[in-house]
Design brief:
The chain has about 220 residues and is an alpha/beta fold. The chain has 9 helices and 8 strands.
Length: about 220
């Protein structure tokens, strides 16, 4: 299957993408991984992206699109892929359609993870990261440390990242609503969107997503 995963920040896209890609036997292609891989490997696209990022500018769509195209042409993506973070706007969605059409391929589904805005704010603003090891992540409500402000794993100080503040989260949500959310309507017009609730335990959301994708495939 060829799938695009969309949803607001805090919807759990990265977590769900990893589980879904494994269950479906297809690669998980995330924008973040594309940028890191191209920059670390010193590709032409990576150098272009780094120059924009170092200057504090947004990376142009054509650079992101080029990275995605190169990745989707790799052998492990021959039977499908799950895109996470791309396309990010309607112009990228149109470019993706053109790319796929050129290869006589098309998307099978666009999975929309739906989460109430207040829940998004609660999820992200409540996160606390360990200063010693950023892979140790806690939450003031959902995953409380045994001792306030102290990492259960290594005893490091827990802190809230600047981009996890409520004000920043609401700004990120506004960007999502204005830039990325319009692609849902774009894909709805093609009959590709399946929307599921991203509330609940990780495995519950994965189960919902797999069922929705199966139903979509059966409809074809």
């Amino acid at each position: 299957m060829r799938i695009v995963l969309v949803g607001p920040p805090g919807a759990g896209k990265g977590t769900q993408a990893a589980f879904l890609a494994k269950n479906l036997g297809i690669p998980h292609i995330s924008t973040g991984d594309l940028f890191r891989a191209n920059i670390s490997q010193g590709t032409d696209l990576g150098k272009q992206a780094k120059a924009y990022m170092d200057a504090g500018n947004l990376v142009p769509d054509e650079v992101t699109i080029g990275m995605a195209k190169d990745r989707m042409e790799q052998a492990d993506a021959a039977n499908g892929f799950l895109l996470d973070g791309f396309p990010r706007n309607v112009s990228q969605a149109e470019a993706l359609d053109e790319m796929l059409q050129a290869e006589s391929m098309k998307l099978d589904a666009v999975l929309d993870l739906e989460v109430p805005e207040d829940e998004v704010v609660k999820r992200i603003a409540g996160r606390r990261i360990c200063r010693k090891d950023s892979s140790h992540v806690f939450h003031v409500e959902y995953k409380k440390p045994q001792q306030d402000g102290v990492c259960d794993v290594c005893g490091g100080e827990l802190y809230q990242r600047d981009d996890d503040s409520e004000e920043t989260v609401r700004t990120r949500l506004e960007v999502y609503h204005t830039q990325t959310e319009p692609i849902i309507d774009y894909y709805k017009a093609q009959g590709l969107v399946v929307t599921i609730s991203a509330l609940g335990k990780v495995e519950e959301v994965t189960g919902r997503a797999m069922e929705a994708l199966k139903s979509k495939a059966d409809d074809k």
